[in-house]
Amino acid sequence: MSFSVPDSLFWTIVLFLVGLGLICVAGDKFVDAAVAIAKRLKIPQIVVGATIVSLGTTLPEILVSTTAAVGSAQSPEISVGNALGSIICNTALIAGIGQLILPAKEIKSKSVGWRMLFFVGTMVLLFVSVLISPSKTFIDQNNVERVAVGTVGRVIGIILILGFCVYAYLSIKLKDSDGEAEYDENEKVMPMWAALLMLVIAAAALFVGANLLVENGQVLALDYLHVPERVVAVTMIALGTSLPELVTTVTSAVKKQGDVGLGNIIGANLFNVLLVLGLPAAITGNIAFTDKALFLDLPLALLAMVVLIVPMLIRKKGSRVQGAILLLGYIGYCVWSFVAAGA
């Protein structure tokens, strides 16, 4: 007697795998295009990683959080959990893997330091604004009334979006302080038009692939595994929307272009706060934070970035030990999330 998988489950799994494959292929092409642009413009790879690559690979998070906030079944836990969970995933899992494969070398304090300060300042602003805002109730996807300790209002959302504009401007304006990128003048480089076209196509493919993976992964988790919504947001959805960053970082490390991967992680983490939370907050004017999101997920996201960046600023390079600590920390966080939720 053979085992047959129900059609709905079968196609859910198929689409999940299609999304994963699409992300893997598009991630490789995205790195190629970004590096080609850096070479053509003769700018440091970390600047390209922290702007163009980061924006492209953060598109899935932006879509998921905005849709969760403004859709018919509004779900602030998914909006917030996706943003903060993606930062934790980007830093502890993805950067951890990147450092294990190829530790960062010759870290430039001017490139990384101001971005880290920008990130810390943004996270502090977010924490304080939610802490001093009034509490509210909301209905989750299980039609259960929940209490939020605070919210991100429209004014803070607009400030976050303006912060993104400032960050993008500074990334371009301060590129000269990073030093000239050293490229082989005799190396054959992709034409600019071709690189830009590949970048757009790859970003679109990442967008489609990540959404296929997230939507079908969420169905598998909620309908078949019965995992609580918050756990899905900070683990499965965060991991799914962060797969472009994972592929970009691993591909960059394998190609020995680690600065692109590191710059992408820093930029993506900033975008997760400035755009992934800022955009739905500006639209709805009311993104609810639960106590676990404010007092657990947000501090852990900040701590992960400190563990990743501060030693690099001191030693001017990364290490595999650093990568191992971050990776073990991420595994512990995921296990704790499932155990604490009673999954």
Description:
This protein is mainly α. It has one domain (7-178, 190-340): A middle domain of Talin 1 (Up-down Bundle), CATH 1.20.1420. It is 76% helix and 5% strand. It has helices at residues 7-41, 45-70, 76-101, 109-132, 154-173, 192-225, 229-254, 258-274, 278-284, 291-315, 320-340; strands at residues 136-139, 145-148, 150-153, 286-289. The strands form two sheets. It has a two-stranded antiparallel ribbon. Strands 3-4 form a two-stranded antiparallel sheet. The longest helix is centred in the N-terminal third of the chain and has 35 residues, at 7-41. It is globular, with a radius of gyration of 20 Å. The chain starts with 6 loop residues before the first helix and ends with a helix. The relative contact order is 0.23. The model is unreliable at 1-5 and 176-182 (pLDDT under 50).
Query: How do the helices and strands follow one another from N- to C-terminus?
Result: HHHHEEEHHHHHEHH
Beta-strand level of the residues, as a percent range?
Answer: under 5%
Reported CATH architecture: Up-down Bundle
Gross morphology is globular
Question: What is the CATH first-level class name?
Answer: Mainly Alpha
Major sheet attributes: 2 strands, antiparallel
The CATH superfamily is: NCX, central ion-binding region
The overall pLDDT average reads: 79
Radius of gyration, in angstroms, nearest whole number: 20 Å
Outline the low-pLDDT stretches.
Answer: 1-5, 176-182
